[in-house]
Amino acid sequence: MTPDLMKAGTEIRRARDEKSMVESGSGGRQASYGRLHKPGTLDVSHGAILYLDDITVSFDGFKALNALSLSISAGELRCIIGPNGAGKTTMMDVITGKTRPDLGHAYFGSTIDLLRLRENEIASIGIGRKFQKPTVFEQLSVFENLELALRADRGVRASMFFRLSGEQLDRIAEMLTLIHLKDSAQRNAGLLSHGQKQWLEIGMLLMQDPKLLLLDEPVAGMTDEETERTAELFLSLEGNHSLVVVEHDMKFIGELTQNGRNGKKVTVLHEGSVLAEGLLSEVQANEKVVEVYLGR
Ligand SMILES: Nc1ncnc2c1ncn2[C@@H]1O[C@H](COP(=O)(O)OP(=O)(O)OP(=O)(O)O)[C@@H](O)[C@H]1O
Ligand SMILES: [Mg+2]
User: Fold this and answer.
1) Which CATH class is domain 3-294?
2) Tens digit of pLDDT for each residue in 231-286?
3) Sign of the dihedral defined by the CA atoms of residues 238, 241, 165, 131, in that order
4) How far is the CA of 140 from the centre of ligand 1 (A)?
């Protein structure tokens, strides 16, 4: 093995370790990894790509999620809002296998029981997640970050001997254009603006072509222009992907929902369950929602 290859392998490993450190955390009952189950195939013939039923997560007796039920249709872009501590991030932790609920059911399509899968299995069947803080590899270039995402499911050894095909190079080039980072391809990710880092992470997620994307406060810290571009990007993904977007930025939620064909549903979470669901105008006029937000 040439020193170059060894170095590449070490880099990839180190980068992965960093990523798993950033992403590891605790909450609820830690996922138990004792069981091995083969993921089934995704069946969305009944319309829903994600189905949560009666999910409860307790932290020392405090219910972060309290009998939460929610269903997302295939191809839907669903916005989820709610005050701090409503349980939005915890909900994503349950969907991605990071936190096991005490009670309830979670299905991907109508056949895949998410509560029986490990975190890495859930990622590999097509559920991608963007965390609240951007988690990109700061020492690697923008291009290398996307390259790494493309081969993320290979073992370290396979990655070392992996060569990008012409088709894969084209995909990276397309992604650079889509996330407006074409001119920064060779820059270190650490030098990007906060908004650009958010985009790069979204691009890294998309390289893995997830069927369902979970985005936790994707426009936090972005400028108005970056926020608008992000709304355009998400709207362009709708249909081919299903998206669950958690945000506090109501202007952004407005941009995502007003363009909806027949109006798009917004879900309001509060104290671990659904407080209201409907068109943005409907939930904004809902008395219970107004009370929660104004703290009356
Ligand atoms: N690991 C944990 N241990 C104890 N309590 C936790 C843990 N994780 C979350 N919580 C609590 O659960 C509740 C829901 O938290 P969560 O992070 O899901 O809220 P959120 O809706 O994402 O809020 P925000 O809008 O501030 O991001 C909060 O009261 C939080 O303090
Ligand atoms: Mg949160």
Assistant:
1) alpha beta
2) 999 999 999 999 999 999 999 999 999 755 557 999 999 999 999 999 999 999 99
3) positive
4) 31
